[in-house]
Amino acid sequence: MARAAFLENSGRAARLWLAILRRLPYAPRDARLVVEQVMRMGVTSLPLVIVISLFIGAVTAVQVHYQFHGLIPDNYLGTAVSKFVIIESGPVLTALVLAGRVGAAIAAEIAAMKEKEELDALSVLDLDPLRYLALPRVLAGFIALPLLVILSCVFALVGGWLLARSSFGLTTETYVQGMRFLFSGFDVIVCLIKSFVFGGVVTFAGFHAGLKAGPGARGTGQAAMNAVVSASVWILVLDFVIIFLMY
Amino acid sequence: MPPSAPLIELRGLVKSFGKQAVLRGVDLDVLRGETVVILGASGGGKSVILKHCIGLLQPDAGEVRIDGYVIASPTVTDYAMIRRRMGMLFQGAALFDSMSAGENIKFAVREHDRHLSEAQLDNMMREKLALVNLRPDVATKMPSELSGGMKKRLGLARALALGPQVLLYDEPTTGLDPVTASVINKLILEMQQKLGMTGIVVTHDLDSAFQIANRIAFLYEGRIIFFGSPEEIRTVQDPRVREFVGG
Ligand SMILES: Nc1ncnc2c1ncn2[C@@H]1O[C@H](COP(=O)(O)OP(=O)(O)OP(=O)(O)O)[C@@H](O)[C@H]1O
Ligand SMILES: [Mg+2]
């Protein structure tokens, strides 16, 4: 039973993905709508992403120091923090935060529009809801998340540096040297690929959940929850897949 | 086509949601230029009938014809050609909450004709506002700032924007005070008399029905069990109708 439901749901999701991607040719004409969504998601998420990233960097530095102190020279603290932040925690944690913030918000918004017949009203005016609602949101996810992740990585590295300097007495020079050591452009590319994919996953999960929301306030709440759950699961699964394929 | 041929024909319309049979064979003819009111109990499927007429729902059996042309049947969905000929006023007005009142009217027109200038769009918008007795300064308000009656009138103005020949009204007076309700009734009459609009009105407001209807259809357990003039329905003997109409 559960498996049949899962397969049916995945089939529907795949069809919706195709339907949205088929509307890509409209993107240049509707660029204004995309920019609006990027602003909404990106700018409003900035403070949260920055605060969280500072702590991620700091926590990573603490853990590296605690686990490897005495085993490897502290010079490599910057190396470990930057590797971990760029490859894993930057993209994954930012995406998870956005799943809770943006994915849930999109789901609730679309569910409310469905409940209030705004989606029907669009169709009746011969306006395609997928073009005007889904496409700008999903594209904005593809654009906004990589930007946020770059920012997140920068602030995580800053967080690690602040902590290493204040608690472990590392000089800025040692930390930066460590960061540079083993730094590879390939890691950054993997980081951006992940962010791009996660950006689509988060916004799509929000739209999909909103579209199939049940009636009433309960349906809206359920839709928001579904969006967060399915986005989170997909982020972690795809994280694994991408790492597996790329390394 | 002779002027007496029906503009809208519903033939044996059947629709179920899951196990719940809502429409069990609905037949209805609407002549060009007339206003037909569909009366029936709450939850009886009145909104479902309207949604079939404008292509938001597809029947399980039967068909909808506009001008003799099949636009909806279990195998056909050819709404594109009729959508712009029909407008719909939704039960809850279904205004686009994120847009100003003026933008609600202009949006679809601008999207369908990108060559129109903003000045032309503003003119069109003011003209539609005047048609529904709304002052021009309403244009800058957001839908959440409007009263229930104003929302319905704005919903009607938006439905008029694409210049339809047929208007579908879903409970236009429900939830309004008697004075506002009679303003809306007058508007519906004006649409018919000034613009030659064909109308289908769904309601359980008897006063409204008697004021605006050329003919009244009575929906009972998924079928139209009475279809005739307002005078006829007052004298009909069928107890199922008498109970609703009273007297
Ligand atoms: N999209 C849908 N999915 C499932 N059930 C639906 C759907 N649309 C309508 N129904 C069901 O069909 C029945 C008829 O609904 P409809 O909205 O047409 O009633 P109505 O006559 O317009 O009532 P009201 O006067 O309260 O608006 C209801 O029981 C409703 O739950
Ligand atoms: Mg209804």
Protein model, in words:
- The complex is a heterodimer of chains A (247) and B (247).
- Chain A has 8 helices and no strands.
- Chain A is mainly α.
- The two termini of chain A are 37 Å apart.
- Chain B is of the alpha/beta class.
- In chain B, 36% of the residues lie in helices and 27% in strands.
- The relative contact order of chain B is 0.17.
- Chain B has one domain (8-246): P-loop containing nucleotide triphosphate hydrolases (Rossmann fold), CATH 3.40.50.300.
- Chain B has helices at residues 46-53, 80-83, 101-112, 118-131, 148-160, 178-195, 206-212, 230-235, 239-245; strands at residues 6-17, 20-31, 35-40, 61-66, 69-72, 86-89, 166-170, 198-203, 215-220, 223-228.
- Chain B has a 6-stranded mixed sheet, with helices on both faces. Chain B has a 4-stranded antiparallel sheet with strand order 2-1-4-5, with helices on one face.
- The chains are: A mainly alpha (247), B alpha/beta (247).
- Chains A and B meet through α4 of A and β6 and α3 of B.
- Bound molecules: adenosine-5'-triphosphate and magnesium ion.
- Magnesium ion (MG) is lined by residues 46-47, 91, 170-171 of chain B.
